[in-house]
């Protein structure tokens, strides 16, 4: 009579290999991030896909927003001694999305980082800017 442990022993490497193969097959289409890292932001995914950001500037708050990248770029005067630019999926407090929806805004023509263009943008659109003032300056307003 053959003992069961002796009959199973030659098949053990095959069984172990089959289990390992089955476990790894499920990993072939998973993203290359894991529990040790964070998922890429929507903006990072759009950049990798080659989709350029379309920026809208809110002069009253010095905030840029890209709807196709779902990203805000905001000036935070409370950071360090001189201030800093912050990016995120929502505007910095105390500004809310509702406040931005009712404030004047202007669509930008650049597609890279708004930080690179802010000096020129701020000169063209001061915090008190409104579309009505721009129409009067062009001679198209009443």
Topology of this protein?
Layout: H1 4-8, H2 12-25, H3 42-48, E1 55-58, E2 63-66, E3 71-76, E4 84-88, H4 97-102, E5 106-107, H5 118-124, H6 131-138
Antiparallel strand pairs: 1-2, 1-5, 2-3, 3-4
Write up this protein.
- This protein has a domain at 52-138.
- The protein contains 6 helices and 5 strands; from the N terminus they run H-H-H-E-E-E-E-H-E-H-H.
- The protein has helices at residues 4-8, 12-25, 42-48, 97-102, 118-124, 131-138; strands at residues 55-58, 63-66, 71-76, 84-88, 106-107.
- A 5-stranded antiparallel β-sheet has the order 4-3-2-1-5, with no helix packed on it.
- The radius of gyration is 28 Å and the shape is elongated.
Rg (C-alpha, Å)? 28 Å
Shape label: elongated
Number of helices: 6
Proportion of β residues? Answer: 5-15%
* Major β-sheet profile: 5 strands, antiparallel
State the end-to-end distance: 107 Å
- Note poorly predicted spans: 136-142
* Helix/strand structural class: alpha+beta
What sequence of helices (H) and strands (E) makes up the elements? Answer: HHHEEEEHEHH
What's the arrangement of strands in the largest beta sheet?
Answer: 4-3-2-1-5
Helix content: 25-40%
Mean pLDDT: 79
Number of strands: 5
Sum this structure up briefly.
By secondary structure, the protein is of the alpha+beta class. Helix content is 33%, strand content 15%. The protein has helices at 4-8, 12-25, 42-48, 97-102, 118-124, 131-138, and strands at residues 55-58, 63-66, 71-76, 84-88, 106-107.
List keywords for this structure.
142 residues; alpha+beta; five-stranded antiparallel β-sheet; 33% helix; disordered C terminus
